Amino acid sequence: MTESSAGSLGQFLRAHRGRVTPGEAGLPAVGARRVVGLRREEVAVLAGVSVDYYTRLEQGREKTPSSQVVDALCRTLRLEPDARDHLFRLARLSPSVNRTDEVVSPELAEMMAAFPHAAAYVTNAAFRILAANPTATALVAPVWHNGNILANMFLDPEAKDYYLNWDEVSRAAISALRLADGFVPPHPEVSALVSWLHRDSQTFRGLWDDHKVAGLTMTRKSIHHPDVGLLELNYQTFDVRSSPGQQLTVATAAAGSPSADALALLGTLDATRRTVG
């Protein structure tokens, strides 16, 4: 369920206000507090705006804060870089993105094919896989049958058997999807995915409504693959600068480890299946 920009801005501010303690903000903790985190009045004072103005921001009645106000709120709420960028987008203070995220360049496809000992794949803004090398194709096959790996993560009960550290992986995925949902103009596939999962998955709703946001960088996944058993993998994700909205993900295992052997075997299995087929 996506919200209007103003509604998203207010919900984001409320969620992050609740994560900052008075001590972290340099305020004395005096007496009992009825709210978790900072009060509206405290955020307003720290950001240098009136209480009424900040209240209107949270309630969605103020839709056009200045960049100076948003910058002050980022400092007050101690936002990390991705969350800061997201807040600027929610305030409509970031440029639009011209996407070409459905076509994977031949050069990028060729580079992925040159990774025989790694699983490499390209996704669009909604984390739908657009292209994958043979090892990645075999790696994600058990969780690709819904057409979208992220959707499968929340709608297929067997996903928790595949991702042994499901809690960690799912939180990282939701945080990255929240970041993708804030880009201007909105990506229709992202909006549709959020609406679908918000409707059909209670777990997704709980994580989504937490409003944490961060792009994918390095993620560690423990996977139980039905063909090769346990895989301990490091996932590194990169933005494809030439195609805004696309991301390249490369999964690797420690050299000489059982996981490295299993990952290499997956590439061989995929090649064998293609030959037989």
Please render the helix and strand layout as text:
Elements: H1 5-17, H2 40-47, H3 51-59, H4 67-76, H5 81-90, H6 106-113, E1 119-123, E2 129-132, H7 134-140, H8 149-155, H9 159-162, H10 166-181, H11 188-200, H12 202-208, E3 218-225, E4 229-239, E5 247-252, H13 258-276
Helix pairs in contact: 2-3, 4-5, 7-13, 11-12
Question: What would you say this structure looks like, in words?
Answer:
By secondary structure, the protein is α+β, with helices and mostly antiparallel strands. It contains 13 helices and five strands. The chain folds into two domains: 5-90, lambda repressor-like DNA-binding domains (434 Repressor (Amino-terminal Domain), Orthogonal Bundle); 106-276, 2-Layer Sandwich (Beta-Lactamase), CATH 3.30.450. The protein is elongated and about 65 Å long. It starts with a helix and ends with a helix.
In brief, what are we looking at here?
With 277 residues, the chain is an alpha+beta fold. The chain folds into two domains: 86 residues, lambda repressor-like DNA-binding domains (434 Repressor (Amino-terminal Domain)), CATH 1.10.260.40; 171 residues, Beta-Lactamase. It contains 13 helices and five strands.
The secondary structure category is alpha+beta
Largest sheet at a glance?
5 strands, antiparallel
User: What number is the mean pLDDT?
Assistant: 88
Order of strands across the widest beta sheet? 2-1-5-4-3
Name the CATH architecture of the largest domain.
2-Layer Sandwich
Structural domains: how many: 2
Range of helix content = 40-55%
Q: Outline the low-pLDDT stretches.
A: none
| CATH secondary-structure class of the largest domain | Alpha Beta
Order of helices and strands: HHHHHHEEHHHHHHEEEH
Beta-strand percent range? 5-15%
CATH topology of the largest domain: Beta-Lactamase
Number of helices: 13
Distance between the termini: 41 Å
User: What is Rg?
Assistant: 21 Å
Count of DSSP strands: 5
The coarse overall form would be elongated
